[in-house]
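Q: Sequence in, structure out?
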Amino acid sequence: MKTLIKNIDIITMDADKNRYPGGAILYEGDTIEYVGPFSDLEDKIKEDNRQVKVIDGRGMLALPGFINAHTHIPMTAFRGYADNMALWEWLTQKIWPMEAKLKPGDCYWLSLLGAAEMIMAGVTTFSDMYMFTGDIARAAADSGMRAVISRAMVGPDDTYGQRLKDVEELAEWQNKAEGRITMMIAPHAVYTCSPDFLVTCRKLAEEYKTGIHIHLSETAKEVEDCLKEHGKTPIKHLYDLGYFDLPVTAAHCVHLTDEDMDLMARHDVRVAHCPSSNMKLASGFAPVDRMLKRGITVSLGTDGAASNNNLSILKEMSVAALIAKGYTGDPNALPAHKVVEMATASGAKALMLEDKTGSLEAGKKADIQLIDTSGPHLFPKEDPLVHLVYSGYSGDVDTVVINGRVVMQGRKLTTIDLGLVYKEVEKIVNRLRN
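A: Exactly. Output:
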């Protein structure tokens, strides 16, 4: 059956930045067939004998679903658990000891909780780096979300055999769940992986013909330690190890030299900017404006709920735009339309999904969010992208479609039993903390 969304204001986020006030979107199955003025489609709809489901989008704004380019979705378990700490102390004293208590099956429920939160905030795609990747893949499949999943790799240590087995099992999910699930290889960071182990991970990415997802230049300490140990920055270190011959999505990229950014631009390294997490852990402010001026693709990520503390890309858009202006002293830094692009089209490119999602146009997957614009905080009517970035919040998202399937309508989830998820997550958290 075809679905028609009409009488809706559309912002496509396509290359031409087309907008269609009072326009229409037609999709069949998982694929968009038409985006544009309803007048150009009306006769075609009348001629089509097949039944068409009609959604009246009056008072709504249609956008491509947001893309969370870097997260650790099962870390919903640790939301609010450890505050007011820098990254290294936070990891070693709080997070890693707690993660060691996780059991198979836990991350399914924790990931469903994160999926519910993201869907309700208009996120249709996420890129995750964690363990128990089978649980995460199953949650993505069941929730209807699009996901790029990576097994976090550290080493060398005696767990490599298990991690390699995890990667092999994750590979079985490649292009499963109606093609919604793909994978990347994820060496955790230069400070948790030896040079030889980083090369091992690079070869794994070559073997599986996929990209690399890594934390990179997140803190001043990481850069200082890399300079002491290897005589070069983390960016140059990875370059010398052949990493930039492959697609790389680098999370954070807070502490960069001009040479670093020139290398990244030359080799099309894509960045996942996580402003809330970087501030909460006192890691610093990523030089987003300088990266964008070099033509580097910068997307948005939330990081995990343990360091954010939520999974809302709407929030990250606002934070990113405000930080860029305050940090640079330039009121023109990161305008609203650019930060929405980071959350959509640039996110798709960062995850190698630009042929599938990130914009509303014929031939792409039907990953669509409908935003209710009737709230007083979105009035009077001005540029909807400006309102979205500076005034919008997750509760404005009314309906979410992923791969042609309605996963939320009228703020009600259709694929996740949130009450059951709360019960299961509460059991897990009680066990972990007691």
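The CA atoms of residues 17 and 363 lie 17 Å apart.
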